């Protein structure tokens, strides 16, 4: 994979060195591209390349552009030590200090899977990340529909990571992920955010965390693709529902066109949509929108 235009490459011989100096923050050491490639890119494996840049606007935008130019193949991974134009769902900005988190994108080409099932990919990435973080960092990670990663800190659910899926040409999807690892309280972008460190993670070394997430993503994606994208056969639908903090809650869905709908989240259907049971007794599937968890009466 070619280094994306506009990305800050490494100014010295060490992969991933930020311009401010490799050891400018001893609590946030840089990643090592050579070690990551050695661990992840192997014969018969899914990941085909790992590229590490010190700084860029958005790994998603860069990887989409590389795929469009034919300069990236399926299984390509692009990691940045810092993003200054990272994006979340609904075009929200995602910013964090250099080397304080994991900021990366991957290129998938599920050509064997019907396009109508591709909507499961961001949910699949959420399951992969949540299971990897729970096992590797020993934190109880939950999912907020469709693809936010939640941790409970001080009795409050807070967002530790997010996922963004974008089409890349006719046959590809780029999945971008941002996970806060060592952000301190005074560095959080909003009060509802958190980091692995603030949640008491047993691991804040980004190298094993990134490896764990990518290996988990490989396993889930390969199984889902082998099942033709069937969320039931691949157990994706069942696993997502089991880890989804949205289900069983009263929520407000903020929909396109300045509309909103309040109801109980009762299921994730076969198309990955959230099903709300409204006060009128109607079950309404939601395919796109922003979900707000509402507090139940008496809940602190």
Automatic annotation (TrEMBL):
PROSITE patterns: BPL_LPL_CATALYTIC
Gene Ontology MF terms: biotin--[biotin carboxyl-carrier protein] ligase activity
InterPro entries named in the record: aa-tRNA-synth_II/BPL/LPL, Biotin_CoA_COase_ligase, BPL_C, BPL_LPL_catalytic
Highest rank taxon of the organism: Bacteria
One Pfam entry name: BPL_C
Swiss-Prot/TrEMBL keywords: Biotin, Ligase
Sequence segments annotated as region (Disordered): 1-29
EC number: 6.3.4.15
Ranges for domain BPL/LPL catalytic: 40-225
Full protein name: biotin--[biotin carboxyl-carrier protein] ligase
Lineage: Bacteria, Bacillati, Actinomycetota, Actinomycetes, Kitasatosporales
